[in-house]
TrEMBL record:
GO terms for molecular function: calcium ion binding. It comes from Oncorhynchus tshawytscha (Chinook salmon). Pfam families: EF-hand_5, EF-hand_8. May be involved in the calcium-dependent regulation of rhodopsin phosphorylation. Binds three calcium ions. The lineage of its organism: Eukaryota, Metazoa, Chordata, Craniata, Vertebrata. Keywords: Calcium, Lipoprotein, Metal-binding, Myristate, Repeat. InterPro entries: EF-hand-dom_pair, EF_Hand_1_Ca_BS, EF_hand_dom, Recoverin. SMART domains: EFh. The gene is LOC121841225. This is EF-hand domain-containing protein. Residues 61-96, 97-132 form the EF-hand domain. Gene3D superfamilies: EF-hand. PROSITE patterns: EF_HAND_1, EF_HAND_2. SUPFAM superfamilies: EF-hand (SSF47473).
Length: 193
């Protein structure tokens, strides 16, 4: 679109985002302006997203995790993040309501987007989370969490499923809501020094 720079945020998107996030109209318009400056095409590519993400994790290998996060926010599956998807991402990773956050966490773990989480998918995401942990923090991890496999086993164990079972969204949300260790293990949390 030739007039991308001067175009304002569409009313439809604005209303939708006001409804689905706690951001104000002013904040959303400000972000839209910044978004258009930094991203004149109006779409964030996976590579751009990885670059943005890497800045938050200068001491780690954030690329695989960034790819999974990207996938989970690309809700229309067109391979890019538009403004709306980007704002929802921002909202989820900062101030989203708990249930919405857990719905997002479910979509992060549901790698093939079939509506269920398998143990293999838990292993894939645990590996990506593991890559975010700075090397010097690895020796500080509990003995039953100090490899991606152990972390995945421990997390999967909280859901009381056999290795070949699969986990629906409601079971996932219930499981992590009822168990603070499960809640902790689905995210990367920096070790407090
Ligand atoms: Ca998209
Ligand atoms: Ca799946």
């Amino acid at each position: 679109m030739g007039n991308a720079k001067s175009s304002a945020i569409s009313k439809e998107i604005l209303e939708d985002l006001k409804l689905n996030t706690k951001f104000t109209e002013n904040e959303l318009c400000q972000w839209y302006e910044n978004f258009q400056k930094q991203c004149p095409t109006g779409r964030i590519s996976p590579e751009e997203f990885e670059t943005i993400y890497a800045r938050f994790f200068p001491d780690s290998e954030a690329k695989t995790y960034a790819q999974h996060v990207f996938r989970s926010f690309d809700t229309n599956e067109d391979g890019t993040l538009d403004f709306k998807e980007y704002i929802i991402a921002l909202h989820m990773t900062s101030s989203g309501k708990t249930t919405r956050k857990l719905e997002w966490a479910f979509s992060l773990f549901d790698v093939d987007k079939n509506g269920y989480i398998t143990k293999t998918e838990v292993e894939v995401i645990c590996q990506a989370i593991f890559n975010l942990i700075p090397k010097e923090d690895l020796p500080k991890l509990p003995a039953d969490e100090n490899t991606p496999e152990k972390r995945a086993n421990k997390l999967w164990g909280f859901f009381e499923k056999s290795d070949n079972d699969r986990l629906a969204e409601g079971e996932f949300i219930k499981g992590v809501t009822e168990n603070e260790n499960a809640m902790r293990l689905i995210h990367y949390e920096p070790i407090k020094h």
